[in-house]
Design goal:
Nucleotidyltransferase, domain 5, alpha+beta, 4-stranded mixed sheet, 2 helices
Length: 69
């Protein structure tokens, strides 16, 4: 099953939501911090990268999170 994650970028806190192939919500919009523990929580929430497509908001601050993922 493929999962789709959308990430809204903020200055100090970001939001992520995850859907499955059928459009069912697996994770409602949830915050995570702009730090190592926030990113670690995101990776845990997203699970295996083999079946997860991530879309990021296109802003100037996406570099850190893009590199982390």
């Amino acid at each position: 099953m493929i999962r789709f994650a959308g990430i809204d970028i903020g200055a100090e806190r970001h939001m992520v939501a995850v859907l499955n192939e059928q459009g069912e919500v697996l994770c409602r919009s949830s915050p995570f911090g702009e730090d190592a523990s926030g990113y670690a929580g995101l990776v845990e929430l997203l699970g295996s990268p083999d079946d997860c497509l991530v879309a990021l908001e296109a802003t100037g601050t996406t570099g850190a999170i893009y590199s982390w993922l």
